Amino acid sequence: MKETPSAKLVSSANHTASPFGTQFCDHMTLVRFADGRWSEVETLPVGPLPLHPASHVLHYGSSCFEGMKAFRMQNGGVRIFRLDRHVERFQRSAELLCLPLPPADIVEAMIRQLVDLCLDDIPEAPGALYLRPALIGTEENIGAAGAPSAQAMLYVLASPVGDYFSRGGHGLTILIEDQELRSTPGFGQAKAGGNYASALRHVVKARKEHGADQVLFCPNGDVQETGASNFFLINDSQLLTKPLDASFLHGVTRDSVITLARDLNYDVIERDFTVAEVMDWIQTGEAALSGTAAVLSGVGSFVHKGATYKVGDGSTGPNTRKLSDALRALQSGRTEDRFGWLS
Ligand code: COI
């Protein structure tokens, strides 16, 4: 297993000893697209990619990716969580970026092949093997600013991970940004590197100036999502989140949390809501972020217009814990896979 030179030990309680996403299994799988065809799947040692400096991705940002996890089951087997949904979203991102559409059977085969090669590197739950397919435009043509890349490379990396937000039971600090957008309207649903890049300066500023973990983007008061996860308001009987539209990422974990919440008899409400409602809700209720990396992480405080507002006692709330436990139990095979999410 390889570790990037910058990787540092952060916490022995964090199921792998290194920060999220800095340790890699020795192998990756890779295919190329050229002349209208995808190549056979290759298995390679993880290492530098041969890329021409004129590659489309390096100039015009033709890149998208996915993030999903394989879990070690309680009974010793290994299963991938909602592989089909992640592959569908990957294809949608490719379509939005005018990249060659990777066939689902090829992507699934690449992922399964890699998981089989990395079996010994999969940590016990709640740790997991994070799987990162990435698709990039590789046509060598700096004149192609207004044309899609006719060539592409698709590769999958595997990384043993623990918690993304390693805060123990402490809630996250979230800065509410009510002026700026996370990404271009209509493009937020793409899992494109460019969307994360466009949110970055706000996240860096929020961390530096307010010690915040993330930024909740709420342009004109409309509560959307954070720089790397979807957003929920939760109380003893309800779960409130924004309905799907093109402006934000259609989280697979978001969908899983909604399904589990309905199963646990929460009233799930998908509607637009405002920052004022968030402030009102947290007087008595909870807030949480969801994502493959974040799972379901509780918010402990919000920073808004320079003031800090605590959520409950500042730790992850009981309903957030209940839903997060239900998700983690299903993912690791401790409860029945009643929705057919593990494969
Ligand atoms: C994920 O949750 O899979 C993401 O892509 C977020 C990233 C910050 C790790």
UniProtKB/TrEMBL annotation:
<dbReference type="InterPro" id="IPR018300">
    <property type="entry name" value="Aminotrans_IV_CS"/>
</dbReference>
<dbReference type="InterPro" id="IPR043131">
    <property type="entry name" value="BCAT-like_N"/>
</dbReference>
<comment type="similarity">
    <text>Belongs to the class-IV pyridoxal-phosphate-dependent aminotransferase family.</text>
</comment>
<comment type="pathway">
    <text>Amino-acid biosynthesis; L-valine biosynthesis; L-valine from pyruvate: step 4/4.</text>
</comment>
<keyword id="KW-0808">Transferase</keyword>
<keyword id="KW-0663">Pyridoxal phosphate</keyword>
<keyword id="KW-0028">Amino-acid biosynthesis</keyword>
<comment type="function">
    <text>Acts on leucine, isoleucine and valine.</text>
</comment>
<dbReference type="InterPro" id="IPR033939">
    <property type="entry name" value="BCAT_family"/>
</dbReference>
<dbReference type="InterPro" id="IPR005786">
    <property type="entry name" value="B_amino_transII"/>
</dbReference>
<dbReference type="InterPro" id="IPR043132">
    <property type="entry name" value="BCAT-like_C"/>
</dbReference>
<keyword id="KW-0032">Aminotransferase</keyword>
<dbReference type="Pfam" id="PF01063">
    <property type="entry name" value="Aminotran_4"/>
</dbReference>
<dbReference type="InterPro" id="IPR001544">
    <property type="entry name" value="Aminotrans_IV"/>
</dbReference>
<comment type="pathway">
    <text>Amino-acid biosynthesis; L-leucine biosynthesis; L-leucine from 3-methyl-2-oxobutanoate: step 4/4.</text>
</comment>
<protein>
    <recommendedName>
        <fullName>Branched-chain-amino-acid aminotransferase</fullName>
        <ecNumber>2.6.1.42</ecNumber>
    </recommendedName>
</protein>
<keyword id="KW-0100">Branched-chain amino acid biosynthesis</keyword>
<dbReference type="InterPro" id="IPR036038">
    <property type="entry name" value="Aminotransferase-like"/>
</dbReference>
<dbReference type="GO" id="GO:0008483">
    <property type="term" value="F:transaminase activity"/>
</dbReference>
